[in-house]
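Researcher: We're teaching a course module on how sequence relates to structure. For the next exercise, students receive a sequence and then see the predicted structure as tokens, so they can try to spot secondary structure elements on their own. Here is the exercise chain.
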Amino acid sequence: MSARFEAEATSIAGLTLLTRRRFGDERGFLSRLFCGEDLSVYGWPGPVMQVNETVTRHAGTVRGMHFQHAPFAEYKLVTCVQGRILDVVVDLRHSSPTFLQHVTVELSEDNARSLLIPAGFAHGFQALSDDVRMIYAHSAPFRPEAEGGLHPQDAALHIEWPLPVQNLSARDQNHPLISTDFQGLIL
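Model: And here is the predicted structure for the students to work with:
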């Protein structure tokens, strides 16, 4: 446990749920979104190579399920700083005992949780409120040629989205379904 956050293991090895500690008074609070020194204990491999922000306007919108192939496979630290989401992470590691299993976690501005996602996982989320704002820290830069994805409504994933799925991007609609010969990611 760090002075800056509490860490909780999930049902999938390597996937860690973090709850940020808030230090505050009547003016508000401070919480640290990222600390490489603390996160290295949970596998964060080095410097942050990219930080992204997304805004999702409408509840029910699904984004995902995205990943990057080696050698650009990445760790992600995913944080919701406004609104609420159901965050979904699927284990795609070829030799993992939890291959194709997933974890769902609610992240919100109120619960101060973040999800530390190792390389080898597909990630997506559904907005549970309007005007969701997310911050992502990445251990590797985005490379279009390394991009991969799975269809977020693939029955083989067994994801139960709490709201009717809407506003899928053309890219996400065109992600493939898992085939019988799908081997996952070899990192």
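Model: If you want an answer key for the exercise: The chain is about 5% helix and 40% strand. The helical segments are 36-39, 170-173.
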